[in-house]
Amino acid sequence: MRRRDLCSSTQSQALGVRTTTPAFTLNIPSEANHTEQPPAGLGARLQEAGVSILPRRGRPTSTLEKKKKPHLMAEDEPSGALLKPLVFRVDETTPAVVQSVLLERGWNKFDKQEQNAEDWNLYWRTPSFRMAEHNSVKPWQQLNHHPGTTKLTRKDCLAKHLKHMRRMYGTSLYQFIPLTFVMPSDYTKFVAEYFQERQMLGTKHSYWICKPAELSRGRGILIFSDFKDFIFDDMYIVQKYISNPLLIGRYKCDLRIYVCVTGFKPLTIYVYQEGLVRFATEKFDLSNLQNNYAHLTNSSINKSGASYEKIKEVIGHGCKWTLSRFFSYLRSWDVDDLLLWKKIHHMVILTILAIAPSVPFAANCFELFGFDILIDDNLKPWLLEVNYSPALTLDCSTDVLVKRKLVHDIIDLIYLNGLRNEGREASNATHGNSNIDAAKSDRGGLDAHDCLPYDSLSFTSRMYNEDDSVVEKAVSVRPEAAPASQLEGEMSGQDFHLSTREMPQSKPKLRSRHTPHKTLMPYASLFQSHSCKTKTSPCVLSDHGKAPDPQAGNFVLVFPFNEATLGASRNGLNVKRIIQELQKLMNKQHS
Ligand code: ADP
């Protein structure tokens, strides 16, 4: 088969939108072929052409399949080799953007009236799946949740797990979560802490936040300073209130960082380079703790506030920025945004390590987490919570910009990694990953920079490179991203407030501190940069098996981050070893 023929058909199927992940499955009807693999030669040629080959062991062809006109017929292949669109399954909880992105990519929606119960490739829904559903997943299927991950996403469980890690591996590593007490069990400890602090502070106030362990969207939250205002119920946590948040235009904000774990065994973590910054819509004011519009950054709260539509100082209209705009803003203040970003990556790894050993094995699934991170005015990041099924609703243009591409990139990522990590180890499935590589090669190789919505994100690629000499080889010099004119426009005529303690008197000089901008592919010492390669899959590492791909769209691999951690995540997770490596890395980077 000629590659060009197939690719052009693929593109037309995808309605000319994105063709990174081919939207086709090679379906070898079971009557014709009962093996996992297509005939020798066919697989290789189709994979080269960017077609995913998802085996369907012995499954009888459904009536619909027989009736349905194939989208593509491989012209020089044995009769019966049909190319069909991939099929997604949704329910009433599935975010609309997921469905629209998949349709845009040429996928078909699963119809249980018409199709065989197993005729789908991806099931995406908001709640978790039952273990029985995980156990019955087929080699060609993916689920958007991994079992056991709610240990991280309930606020009380998160606090307990991180406390355990602190005991095991030292407080210095795990001091990124504000001091937390789980009610009612920690009530006496909290009371003791509260009064001890009061004594120490004298007339100064201490601030606490009380949050329901299981609720989200800012519901049921209470901020207090005086003990008599403290009311709680079962399943609440009380946490030190970060009273010195980084303020922008005197508004509090927090970061929503998207993290995708494509496998726990072996552990594989990606961080999304774009994200959201969510603002409170009234100015931060510690003298009024009851004003949720000033103290909570949830958009579900702020979008109903009177100030939401107003043009606010520095932040403008609405209550969201993209992460890239936020980092551009920090850079304009000469803030070391790269160091902050590294700290966030470390925090993500350390948090996931807290549950990774106890997560049950499951094949063909992934988990998208939403990490909520608050930055204080010393630029220290604090983990507030980890969200399960982070909101994918499109409330504003910033949401559209970030979340649509996020879903596209998740699909790219799971078809690059998910189908060859746990899936392969567990079921010995033979899914290839070369579909993506071939698709990349069609575009002249994946150039990470092309995928980034903002050049300013390039800093995120400069991670974890231990061998500087190798790193230098992977450097590409690019112009500074957020054009000064754009930033200037955003900032003109406004005051700038970077700190709760001290506000600068003058407008910052806009400069390119990082010019020319260096971009390093992550782990250059370990993995070849994709942009340097066209078609081959990522390097195979000695006897540890294949290394995960370093990047898919805006997703960047943060774990494993070197050969030692790759080894320590195979054949059981050696958390102690991983922590040692991380500690070494942090010492090096922070020094
Ligand atoms: P929810 O799941 O209800 O969104 P969060 O823990 O994310 O709960 O808290 C909601 C908001 O409250 C956060 O987005 C942040 O603005 C604020 N917040 C939460 N915890 C703290 C804290 N410890 N210090 C300062 N602000 C906090």
TrEMBL record:
Q: Write out the GO cellular component annotations.
A: ciliary basal body
This protein's source sits in the domain of life called Eukaryota
Gene Ontology terms: biological process: microtubule cytoskeleton organization
The record's keywords, sorted A to Z, are:
ATP-binding, Ligase, Nucleotide-binding
Task: Quote the biased-composition stretches of kind Polar residues, using this chain's numbering.
Answer: 7-20
Q: Which Pfam families match?
A: TTL
Q: Which GO terms describe its molecular function?
A: ATP binding; tubulin binding; tubulin-glutamic acid ligase activity
Family annotation (InterPro entries): TTL/TTLL_fam
Stretches for region Disordered = 1-20, 55-76
Instruction: Spell out the PANTHER family in the cross-references.
Output: TUBULIN POLYGLUTAMYLASE, TUBULIN POLYGLUTAMYLASE TTLL2-RELATED
Q: Could you identify this protein by its name?
A: Tubulin tyrosine ligase like 2
Organism expressing this protein natively:
Pan troglodytes
Phylogenetic lineage: Eukaryota, Metazoa, Chordata, Craniata, Vertebrata
Gene that this sequence comes from = TTLL2
